[in-house]
Amino acid sequence: MLFTATPRNRIFVTPRLLMFDGWALVRETQTVSAHSKLKEWWAKTGVLVPIERISDDRIVALEARYKIRLPPDFRAYLSESSPVRQNWDEEMGNWWPFSRIKNIPEEYDSRFTPENADKYLFFLDHCVWCWAWAISCADDATYGSIVTIGGPEKVVAASFSEFVDRYVSDWLSVS
């Protein structure tokens, strides 16, 4: 941690700097992306998940196929850390490879699905599809949220980043 004196009596806060009474407390923080946290958790728990980078062209094609725009944190996950094949983690989660990602109507036949189900993409299922998680890519208030489908159908996180944070610390909090 680095402490630095600054010119007088201003108060403001930024992610790296807190100033008060003419002194600044500078804290070098590094934001860890959701996909990096997930990779670290896989490694820490001894799960071997081979990953690949997905090209922008393939991601744009996915977006065009479903007429959606991926949330930035989910796009980064696919771009940097997409599993090469289906993989089980220690919580019996099966993280889908890019080639398996589908919207709700293509993967799941049920009348109990969210509005705009065609704008939600599955990316993970639990215990051979007891239920699955999908991310909203709808251009509405649900954009980026994560829902469970096939079990207790509900919103479990406001974003992919929040989902990963909670999944790796207490997966039951998002089930």
At a glance:
Helices cover 27% and strands 25% of the residues.
Key terms for this structure?
25% strand; 4-stranded antiparallel beta sheet; disordered N terminus; SMI1/KNR4-like; 175 residues; alpha+beta; 2 domains; 5 helices
Helix content: 25-40%
CATH topology of the largest domain: SMI1/KNR4-like
Largest sheet: 6 strands, antiparallel
User: At CATH's second level, what is the architecture of the largest domain?
Assistant: 3-Layer(aba) Sandwich
Helix/strand order: EEEEHEHHEEEHEEEEH
Rg over CA atoms, rounded to whole Å, is 19 Å
Number of domains: 2
Compute the number of strand runs.
12
Sheet with the most strands: spatial strand order: 7-8-9-10-11-12
Mean pLDDT: 85
What is the CATH class of the largest domain? Alpha Beta
Q: Please state the structural category.
A: alpha+beta
What general form does the structure show? Answer: globular
Instruction: Supply the number of helical segments.
Output: 5
Topology overview:
Elements: E1 2-5, E2 12-13, E3 17-20, E4 23-26, H1 34-44, E5 51-52, H2 56-66, H3 72-81, E6 82-83, E7 87-88, E8 93-95, H4 104-107, E9 120-126, E10 131-136, E11 146-149, E12 154-157, H5 160-170
Antiparallel strand pairs: 1-4, 2-3, 3-4, 5-6, 7-8, 8-9, 9-10, 10-11, 11-12
Helix pairs in contact: 1-3, 1-5
